[in-house]
Amino acid sequence: MKQFTSLAAVAGLVSLVHGHGFVSSPTPRYPGSAFEAACGQQAYDTETSDVYGNIQGMLQVAESQSDYNAAECNAWLCKGFKYADNNVTYSYTAGETVDFEVTIHAPHTGVANVSVVDTSTNTVIGSPLISWSVYASVSTGVAANNTAFSVTIPDDLGDQCTTGGDCVLQWYWYAESIDQTYESCVDFTVDGSGSSSSSGSTGSTSSASTEATSSTATPSSTSSASTSSSATPTETPTPAETSTPAETTTPVVTPTETSAAAETTTPAAVATSAPAETPTASADVIPSTTFATQLRASGSVSSSTGVATSVSIPTNASAEEKLNWVESVFKYLVGNN
């Protein structure tokens, strides 16, 4: 009875751990019927109840289910969220500034970037548009430029992103200390000639736009202001069963300010060659590939459970990280009894 009470207490604590990060603007992909068909009912229920959660947590639930299809789910691209479930595709021009807003519910020190990703291969095109060697720090808290920042659309994409669904702006955050990955994807198109183009889908385009001035964080003491013009979203038909919230087809870009926090952000220069490693101003180099590649190369985590094969007590960790450690020990004990 005593053991049952202890286990129940641990389970209760684990249930208090909520998801931690997701892009709020521009409108990203959300889970819908296509996601449910590929990743299964349990994954769909998990994401529709809390879209801010990490990929590892979602897979821990989904992988044991009979309706989970790993290849079709493709969880390491946009968290498995599908273009077919999306009803907003933005039309940008080369050199255009795009303002981002990210909601972070709890900090976990890690690295992050925003990149143009080829969805057919799940690879970064060129270099990340902006990157952080320290992101959502537990010791200093979430800096202002972790949640409000701008990126510039590259001018060397050619014809790679002329069709809706071919490319995304992917926000990627990996908290290595607790092995948690967060992703959000914004669908967009760029005309090969450098002028605005409509989405590859059959939605209507709103002509209204709003211009605002924003500051982009830089790794040096010199800051450069750039003028941001809001993108014109193109609506695409939403599947009948989708749970995607109704979106506004004319997102208004608001001014953002650059934080002077300790974190260093590195807006990358436009790449003119094949995909390359992430350039940063410090010795901490951020990989330009998505976390899927890192995970496949890592042998430190069990693929079936997501629990580390060796256990060390995180005495200096935050309360949130200790909770995650308790959860992993609990699952290990249950799985071996």
UniProtKB/TrEMBL annotation:
<keyword id="KW-0479">Metal-binding</keyword>
<dbReference type="InterPro" id="IPR004302">
    <property type="entry name" value="Cellulose/chitin-bd_N"/>
</dbReference>
<dbReference type="Pfam" id="PF03067">
    <property type="entry name" value="LPMO_10"/>
</dbReference>
<keyword id="KW-0325">Glycoprotein</keyword>
<feature type="signal peptide">
    <location>
        <begin position="1"/>
        <end position="19"/>
    </location>
</feature>
<dbReference type="GO" id="GO:0046872">
    <property type="term" value="F:metal ion binding"/>
</dbReference>
<feature type="region of interest" description="Disordered">
    <location>
        <begin position="191"/>
        <end position="282"/>
    </location>
</feature>
<feature type="domain" description="Chitin-binding type-4">
    <location>
        <begin position="20"/>
        <end position="188"/>
    </location>
</feature>
<comment type="similarity">
    <text>Belongs to the polysaccharide monooxygenase AA13 family.</text>
</comment>
<dbReference type="InterPro" id="IPR052282">
    <property type="entry name" value="Starch-active_LPMO"/>
</dbReference>
<keyword id="KW-0186">Copper</keyword>
<protein>
    <recommendedName>
        <fullName>Chitin-binding type-4 domain-containing protein</fullName>
    </recommendedName>
</protein>
<feature type="compositionally biased region" description="Low complexity">
    <location>
        <begin position="193"/>
        <end position="282"/>
    </location>
</feature>
<keyword id="KW-1015">Disulfide bond</keyword>
<keyword id="KW-0732">Signal</keyword>
